[in-house]
Give the backbone structure.
Amino acid sequence: MVSLKDSSDDSQLVAANVIAGDISDWFNYFIIDCGTNDGIDKNCPVITTDGLVGVVSEAGPSSSKVVTIVDEQNMMMCRIARSNELVRVRGVSSENLKYELYVDRIANGSEMYVGDELITAASGDVFPEGISVGKISEIIVDEKTGERSARVDISVDLTVISKVYVMTQPETEEVSGGEDIQ
C-alpha cells in the first residue's frame, strides 16, 4: 500500500472488492462494491499492488463498472521504464483467448527489448505516471513494411483478481450519485 500511495500523488486509494465480472473469457470488465458514495467517479484509475487494471467506466452510489486495460477499446500512452520513451499501447482480443496488450507506432530509432517494463505516462489526465502496465514479451517486425510492434504481458493476473484499489481525487465539491450498476 505504501508504494501504491507514493505513486498516486494526491489521489486517495479506495479499496474495493470485485463482486461480478465478464462472463466471457475476455476479462474486459468487472463490477466492484464501491461507487460515488465512496468518492469514485467515471475515469478513476483502478490498480492492484501488481499494477494497472483498468478504469471506472460507470459509477453508481454503491457499485461501479471497471473496464480493464485489455479491452479492445482501450488505448493509452505508456513509457518504456528503461529509456523513458513514449509508446502507444492498446488492448487486444487474441484468438487463443489470451488477454494482452499490443504496442504499435514504435519509432524507427526506438530501442525496445523483450523484458522491457512499460509504465503509465502522465497523458490524457486519466492515469498518473509510473504505474506498472506490463512487460514486452515479443517484438514483431512486418517483413513487408519493416514496421515494428510488440506484445505485452500485463502485470496483473485478471483471472484471479478479487480486490482492487480505485484512485480517487480529493473531494472539492459534493459528489452526486447515479444508479447502481447491475
